[in-house]
Task: structure prediction
Amino acid sequence: MQYGNNEPFAYMIDGVVIGRLDKVDGNWKQVEGEQTPKEVIADIAYFLDHRE
Result:
């Protein structure tokens, strides 16, 4: 979920935000929340980069 274009993307489980990603220098980075496996971040980043 992203509230605005300049806001980090929040990801959640069961409606609870567990972390936020932000695109820094062209790469998605976890900027907040619980430690998330790199594979999960890569999957979310792929989704974000390919959304319309």
Notes: The beta strands are 9-13, 16-24, 27-33. DSSP finds one helix and three strands in the chain.
